[in-house]
Amino acid sequence: VATNDPILQITGLRKHFGGIKAVDGVDFTICRGDIAVLIGPNGSGKTTALNVLSGVYTATAGSISFNGTDITNRRPAEINRLGITRTFQNIRLFPELTALENVVIGYYPKGTVGLLGTLFARRRGFIEDREAAARARETLRLLGFSRFDIKAKNLPYGQQRVVEIARAIVSGPELLLLDEPAAGMNREETAALSEILYRIHDLGLTILLIEHDMSFVASVATRAYVMDFGQKISEGTVAQVLSDQKVIKAYLGD
Ligand code: ADP
């Protein structure tokens, strides 16, 4: 259920790369229970904004507050521990590990992943932590996935995405950031992804995603923010922003 209770507040956010103003003074507030989507033409600054939010990049200016805590320029591991997790545009699973092992890795605080990844790679099929394994199974089942013991590299693309999302939520975050989760998916996989996002939302998570597939966006998002040239040019429901002249112009100029 969407609320008016802010979970993430972004104020005057800027990220410049030398002379490139990738994000150039953006304000937005995500409320608890939103499935919020960030849209905009290529190069409008969406991924950069997500990278600053998750601590991958430091901000040039501005502030980010999560649950009332200032998280501006904190390290990714710290932001992760505070309850924000994410997926990336390109799937980042350990190909030689099983689906279950990949999700188990997400159970541990970020920063230990490299070490555990190596450990699991050496001792494939062996999961030491029963609690982590139980949580990983439960999370995968919740997302309708039960092929626990198949190596990630042998799963179809859509299912690799599901495993990646399971890994992002197994630690029990409050805010999930997804960078183009439907990219490369066929129609069936995209429909399954909508179901998965609803289930995650039902668990009480707030979701912020970047997405290009407008019919997918229209089916899942409760709120939309549109960026163009590093600035926010519109916000509202998906229907509202898609009928906004500024948005139509931005896309036609793309
Ligand atoms: P979007 O996700 O909306 O397609 P991006 O955030 O990827 O947009 O890019 C916004 C702008 O910032 C683009 O002009 C892009 O070339 C530039 N940019 C992104 N990352 C970097 C970087 N690491 N170094 C320099 N320029 C970058």
TrEMBL record:
- Going by the entry's taxonomy, the superkingdom of the source organism is recorded as Bacteria
Q: ABC transporter domain location, by residue?
A: 8-254
Q: Where in the cell is it found?
A: Cell membrane
For this entry, the protein name equals: Amino acid/amide ABC transporter membrane protein 2, HAAT family /amino acid/amide ABC transporter ATP-binding protein 1, HAAT family
